[in-house]
Structures are given as C-alpha cells and as structure tokens.
Amino acid sequence: MKLEINTREDLDKAIEVLVETFEQQHGAEAKDEIHYIDLGLPSGAKWADRNLEGYFTFDEACKAGAPSAVQIAELYEECEWEWDSQKKGYTVTGPNGNSIFLPAAGYRVNNEGEPECLGSEGDYWTKCPSKTSPSDGRGLYFKAGDVDPLSSNGRAYGFSVRPVQE
C-alpha cells in the first residue's frame, strides 16, 4: 500500500490507516502492551519500554513491580547514559546496543497535586527500603549531568515506576 501525503489531512488519514491496520493484525490491546527490552545485562533482566502510567508511593511501587536496588545498580553500572535535552530524559544504552528512554517525569509531593520538576528531574522507585532510614525508600534520581542510582526519599513521594522482567 502506497500513500501519498501532501497535506496535514493526508498525514492524519495515513496515520489512521496505519493504526487500523496494526489493530487488525495485532489486536487493539497490542499497542498498549508493555514490551520488555533486552539490554544485554549480565543478569539477563529486561526493562520495560515505558513507565507505568502515573506516580506511585513507595508501597504502591513495590506492589506494581518496581525493580530491585541491584537491578537499578546494574542498569547504572553496565549501561551508557546520555541526556537528551530535547526529549528531557536519559537514553540508556545496554552492552548489546539496545536502549530504553527514561523521561524526566518529575515527582509529586505526598503523591498529591501537580508534578514538580517535570522535564528536569527523574525519580524512580526501587522495591528496597533505605538502609539508613527505614521510613524512607530507595530510588533512582537523575537530572542533566547527574545520576544517583540509589537515593533515599520519603515513602509518601509520588515517583515513576519502570518495571523489570527477570
């Protein structure tokens, strides 16, 4: 099938046709499914191609499949991290050349209200409590030029969750 695209209307129609074709071939649910990317990590862990939708407290993140501290540390140590100033986040490239994108999705104080630091900070929960303060949880924190793989934060904060498949 060849589509001629000369106007915005042609483009919109082409996108509609492509989506319909995809849904017919793979089912409407397929476009919303999380896919897991093999980054070539020594553990064999595969990282989801996107964040779970929304923000989670530490306890919610543990139930939602947040990665372990060991998995975050492996991602940090074994992969190349490159800040993308246009997309606002890090492209994380594994030893095998495959990559995932971690957006700087910010956070929510007490998991309420509008996100803060959207586009400038990324905060992702692990399922590990802080060793130094049991009332805190451990998480990945980043901004342009700075990545802290295991920061300690109050459990009530709303952070992103990126699932991992072992």
Provide structural commentary.
The chain is α+β, with helices and mostly antiparallel strands. It has one domain (36-165). The chain has three helices and nine strands, in the order αββααβββββββ. The protein has helices at residues 8-26, 58-63, 69-78; strands at residues 36-38, 46-48, 80-84, 89-93, 99-103, 122-129, 136-143, 146-154, 164-165. It has a three-stranded antiparallel sheet, with no helix packed on it. A hairpin with a 6-residue loop joins β6 (122-129) and β7 (136-143). The longest helix is centred in the N-terminal third of the chain and has 19 residues, at 8-26. The chain is globular and about 60 Å long. The termini are far apart.
Question: Helices, strands, pairings?
Answer:
Layout: H1 8-26, E1 36-38, E2 46-48, H2 58-63, H3 69-78, E3 80-84, E4 89-93, E5 99-103, E6 122-129, E7 136-143, E8 146-154, E9 164-165
Antiparallel strand pairs: 1-2, 2-9, 3-4, 4-5, 6-7, 7-8
List keywords for this structure.
166 residues, alpha+beta
CA(first)-CA(last) distance:
39 Å
Query: Tally the helices: what do you get?
Result: 3
Overall 3D form: globular
Please give the largest β-sheet.
Answer: 3 strands, antiparallel
Strand content is 25-35%
Low-confidence stretches: none
Total beta-strand segments: 9
Can you describe this structure in just a few lines?
By secondary structure, the protein is α+β, with helices and mostly antiparallel strands.
